[in-house]
Amino acid sequence: MHAPTRILPMILLALLQSVIAPAAVASSSTSAMPGLRGYFVNGISGAQHIGHIDWTQYDEVVQVDTINWPNAGSQAFYEDGPTSYFGARFVGEIDIPQEGLWSFYLGSDDGSVLLIDGQPVIEQPNMQSFRTRTNFVTLDAGSHEIEVLYMQGYGHTGLVLEWDGPGSDGREVIPASAFSSPAEEPVFETAGDGLWAYWFDNARHAGNVGQIDWNQSDQVETVQKISYPKTSGAFRVDGPSDYFGVRFMGVIEVDEGGEWGFELGSDQSAILFVDGEPVVVDDDGHSYRWRTGTKTLGVGEHTIEVRYWEGYGDAGLAVAWKAPSETYARIIPASAFRPGVGATNPSSAGGLRVYNHDSARHASNVGQVDWGDYDSVGTVQNIYYPKTQGSFEVGDPVDYFAKRYVGQVDIPNTGEWRFGLGSDQSARIYIDGVAVVNDASGHSFRWRHGSKSLTAGLHDIEVHYWEGYGDAGLAVTWQGPNDMFEEVIPSSALSQNEVDPLLNIGGEGLRVYWVDNARHAQNAGQIDWQNYDRMTFESNIAWEITQSAFAGTTITNDDGVSTSEGGTKTDYYGLRAEGLIQIPTEGEWRFGLGSDQSAQLFINGQLLVNDLSGHSFRWRSGSIELEPGLYPFEVRYWEGYGDAGLLVSWTPPGGVEEVIPTSAFSHSEVETPYDAGGGGLRAYWTTNARHAGNAGQIDWDRHDHATTIENIAYRKTQSAFDDQTPSDYFGLRVLGQIDVPASGEWRFGLGSDQS
Asked: Residue 566 belongs to what domain range?
């Protein structure tokens, strides 16, 4: 419940007969009783003045003789009652013995109000140390309604009501004999028709009230009013106590024209609208507090809306108003509300096109996805997916997927626009091709913001998103130059392009040399790249994790469209991609190399990323200073067994990471050999070595024939190394010289089967 349980007064009074405080006398409620009936509201730490207390939500009912609790350090008004943060409303009748001008004295710490016949006589509603205020009122002899309101914060406590009038002996505490309580329970508040409440039970993605899409509620009901005192519980039965939102909509009846004051109390984020305009905006996350605003209203009906978000811990929400003729605000009563038409159905117009990537296990952020290679295309109304462990759409994957949203956003006003991007795990927003928010590094759900000056009208919008494992979520907000708070971008502001910008077009491609048998190797450095099996042209280096052969790519340019054969092997193969890369701007460029199982990246002949050791898919990176122009580009790759994958990304100076697009690659007209040759070694072949158990058991002076070979690079095979030599039981001795280019310690590797 959002408030302590209301105890029926007749039952509670019977229970309290045995717990009578010195200034309180319990009695039956079946007939008129001496004294006043006190209604106590506990736990009012959220109230800043007496008008912030909802007197209809009381916790205890106690019959009291008099209003006489002198100022004291700490005292309860009844046995076992609270000493801090409580309110009391004393109701009954006062017998005026003689007509005339009567003086009333009301002293309190903290706030108090005296009303006679429903009219305020003394008002001191705010927090204060003990002080007494007086006022005079002319009364007829006989019974009059009386009401005393009191609030206590923290520290000293006190409440005393005195009088002085015709025929009295002077100022004195009003005696018990002057008070009486009617048998009937007083009506505190007339019920109204209520207002709409739209509940949002999953708002873990939000950091404030503006980051909720108010068109996607989980439950709708009507409530009497907006009054939920500070609590660590739920606002409604079976509702969540944390990470939820609620939107109240209705109509209020105003009986007095002029400037009305509105006060909004909340923990943790809230906004109050009257007639569609924000009157109180308290949207940044906070503990319980009150904020105020004013609006000039005419007599009659006006629409009211309150949006509220609760994160973690205490929650609370209340709305008070103050008429032009009143001295302090009061909780808006239920009688002032009616539901009205409520929220309109969300528009089915607008929206964006979405390109779905169902498998993005190779990526560790949004910049490592090849957006030109997608699995399906769909449409969405807007970008709003609260934090979840499920899929964004029915049938979608829940982990390791990526999405690209493309379209246009209609900017209503010229000026500086602030965009918010909430995501788990990696995302970016582009406006007119510029990354306005780049939150690419893998992370749990969080919000990041960026700004851009825009003219009114249509602008390109693109959002890239990648989800790894676990929770997922994505939402996009905006805040205009004159807006007081951010909002989820509505579908009405979004539209699809007739034709989306094409990706992976342009460029001439790279030459790729395939080595189809690399069972001998354990890394890319153990392959003789001069001895390849075939060559293809590939548009770029973007093969995501797979257990299949690398698919052929498509080169699209002014010369037409061509699709390569791609790879033919699934395991134990190598490839060498070689060509030119166009660097558009000067500065430090960062290159990323993602691979399973072994790879190297060379830029301008320099080994920039060396990830040779066999590994599952991972990314490594390196940086290099480059000027604008064409540079030699080379990737060497070896795949052993199981998953395979190879991608190359770049990050320009001051830019964001992306898979290198096809337009950046070209190749020389004339193929450059990997090894120009010119050297060689002498090979001495022993064709019959059946006697030997290892290389040391061969007489190397007695060879059968000699040849010259270019290098020592015989792949694993069941065939012969030489056309004059058998495939089994043979020996080979190679002699010659090696030219070592630099002094130092050199490490040599020897791969062999069998000795």
From this structure: 510-666
